[in-house]
Design brief:
This protein is an alpha/beta fold and 574 residues long. The protein has three domains: 173 residues, Thiamin diphosphate (ThDP)-binding fold, Pyr/PP domains (Rossmann fold, 3-Layer(aba) Sandwich), CATH 3.40.50; 185 residues, TPP-binding domain (Rossmann fold); 175 residues, Thiamin diphosphate (ThDP)-binding fold, Pyr/PP domains (Rossmann fold, 3-Layer(aba) Sandwich). 37% of the residues lie in helices and 16% in strands. α7 links the parallel β6 and β7. α17 crosses α18. The N and C termini lie far apart (76 Å). The C terminus is likely disordered.
Length: 574
């Protein structure tokens, strides 16, 4: 083998693992890595904040299914990345964060910008490690990719002391390659038991979580659902796992991101097959209400997820794709393809009768009208990126999704500011795709400096801002406390003119105040973004005190009449 600078070996490992872009900011303690990077075909995007770099790598990873990479120097660069690592950990996104570090001999002497980033990062990573010897460099990075991809995916942090980066190692890329990642097969007995329960149920649902998308298991999900004619619901992270125009789509249950008819269908179900879902509290709400009257099968690749929130009637450990494929194969062996029965028809009836309005013509604009226009204007291949707040809740309630990896949302951690850098990662990965950011005014301001990155590198996308000049979700949460404290963001009271801000970045923007103007503004922004190869903003001013429909438990409890008696006794032929 040839002896080469160990950072050159690291960069060769990155390229062989399918990394074509990294996001970061150079600094003194990471320059040997950058010296190696500049000799490689890997593209580097210089971000304006290290948190933005982690979110960009996160977005790149979500849309590609590969491992995203972000880079920073020592000290505050690493601590700035912690929010991004937590976000990736919470949503099971494979990311590798590379940090520079002071020389090993200086770590105990409070050297400039030296912090124990490994210990800081351990709670929000699958693995955090400091490279101790140059000879370990390619092998630690190989293991990092394997760990990030294996089981429940997640982030890894690798800390690189400056003196180690200057070292050499023996490495030959011709004899090296990615480490295998196990795709666990389910036990046959567990598959048979799950199918027994599924076929014995009168009103079964399949609940598709984000694990179905991560596992690229959407085809297997659809095959099983269509063979047995079982309606399918999705979680927020599972949006896109099942097309929302499919006759078997059963909406979304939950407290915030939900559909009324989805809650109604869930509460009428008697069995739930949950695949790759965490049973997060914004989905389940009160567990007694959520569990009452139905049995649960929980399928997850991570064994310790099963029983973490509540004990299911059956736990199945396995990769979502292999489990769904095995269930479909077992179902095909037992029964012919079923025709739609009374239960799918009941779900369709709930969908027809319990929808929410989105056709408001009011001025100021009501937020549901924005999502109606987005649904009507953009095609199914559009990739939407959204973050946290009332606009995420409205998006979950009203926005339609048809394909996997086209609806990206920071589901569990919910960091404000996520969407702009994440969209940069998405558009970098797939320059030909239409990318649309849906943001709130306050979230936009958290990492708005990343607009400069998109402008510098000519990364075009459309930003649709839902602006109520409030911290809307916090204002709504304050209502029971009979206060309205510290949430105002009016222009005349410290707020920002977002149109002028975009123009300062060299980008275009338009403000919309009437509902009939939204569609023309979307068309203008889409055309301008493509023509200028820049981000373009459509700022939609909505009524200031618009609230999202949320409750303490599933909101359908008092909104529909439960189905009387066994579902098979109901005649839906009319």
């Amino acid at each position: 083998m040839k002896r080469i600078p160990c950072m050159e070996a690291v960069v060769q490992v990155l390229a062989s693992e399918g990394v074509d872009t990294v996001f970061g900011i150079p600094g003194a303690a990471i320059l040997p890595f950058y010296a190696a990077l500049r000799k490689s075909p890997i593209r580097h995007i210089t971000v304006r904040h290290e948190e933005g770099g982690t979110h960009a790598a996160d977005g790149w990873a979500r849309v590609t299914g590969n491992v995203g990479v972000c880079v920073g120097t020592s000290g505050p660069a690493g601590t700035n990345m912690i929010t991004g690592l937590y976000t990736a950990m919470a949503d099971s996104i494979p990311v590798i964060c590379i940090t520079g570090q002071a020389p090993r001999a200086k770590l105990h002497q409070e050297a400039f910008q030296a912090v124990d980033i490994v210990e800081i990062a351990k709670p929000v990573t699958k693995w955090a490690v400091q490279l101790k010897e140059p000879a370990q460099a390619p092998w630690v990075f190989r293991e990092a990719f394997r760990v990030a991809r294996s089981g429940r995916p997640g982030p890894v942090l690798i800390d690189l002391p400056l003196d180690v980066q200057h070292g050499t190692c023996l490495y030959d890329p011709a004899v090296d390659g990615p480490l295998p990642v196990e795709v666990p097969e389910p036990r046959a007995a567990a598959v048979r038991a799950a199918l027994d329960m599924l076929m014995d149920a009168r009103r079964p649902l399949i609940l598709a979580g984000g694990g179905v998308i991560i596992a690229d298991a959407t085809d297997e999900l659809r095959a099983l659902a269509e063979h047995l004619q079982v309606p399918v619901q999705v979680t927020l992270m599972g949006k896109g796992a099942f097309p929302e125009d499919h006759p078997l789509f059963a909406g979304m249950a939950g407290l915030q991101t939900q559909t009324r008819w989805g809650n109604a269908a869930f509460l009428e179900s008697d069995l739930v097959l949950a695949v790759g879902a965490r049973f997060g509290d914004r989905h389940t709400g009160d567990l007694e209400t959520y569990r009452r009257g139905r049995r649960f099968i929980h399928v997850d690749i991570e064994p310790t997820q099963i029983g973490k929130v509540f004990e299911p009637d059956l736990g199945v450990v396995g990769h979502a794709r292999t489990v769904l494929a095995a269930l479909a194969e077992e179902a095909a062996a037992r029964t012919a393809v079923r025709t739609p029965g009374a239960w799918p028809k009941r779900v369709a009836e709930l969908r027809r009768t319990l929808g929410r309005r989105d056709d408001f013509d009011d001025v100021p604009i009501k937020p549901p009208r924005i999502y109606r226009e987005l649904n009507d204007f953009y095609g199914p291949d559009t990739t939407f990126v959204t973050a946290i707040g009332l606009y995420q809740i409205w998006s979950g309630q009203f926005q339609r999704t048809f394909l996997p990896r086209r609806y990206l949302v920071c589901g569990q951690a919910g960091p404000l500011g996520w969407e702009i850098p994440a969209a940069i990662g998405v558009k970098t990965a797939f320059p030909e795709r239409q990318v649309v950011v849906v943001a709130g005014d306050y979230s936009f301001q958290f990492l708005m400096e990343e607009i400069a990155v998109a402008a510098q590198y000519n990364i075009p996308f459309v930003i649709v801002m839902v602006n109520n000049e409030y911290l809307g979700l916090i204002r709504q949460a304050e209502i029971p406390y009979e206060m309205n404290y510290a949430v105002d963001l009016r222009y005349g009271e410290g707020g920002i003119d977002h149109v002028k801000l975009m123009e300062a970045f060299g980008c275009a923007a338009r403000r919309v105040e009437r509902p009939e103007e939204i569609r023309d503004a979307l068309a203008w922004a889409t055309e301008e973004s493509a023509r200028l190869r820049l981000p373009v903003l459509v700022e939609v001013m909505v009524e200031r005190e618009a609230n999202a429909a949320m409750g303490r438990s599933l909101d359908a409890i008092e909104e529909f009449e439960p189905l009387p008696g066994p579902v098979d006794a109901v005649d839906w032929s009319d």
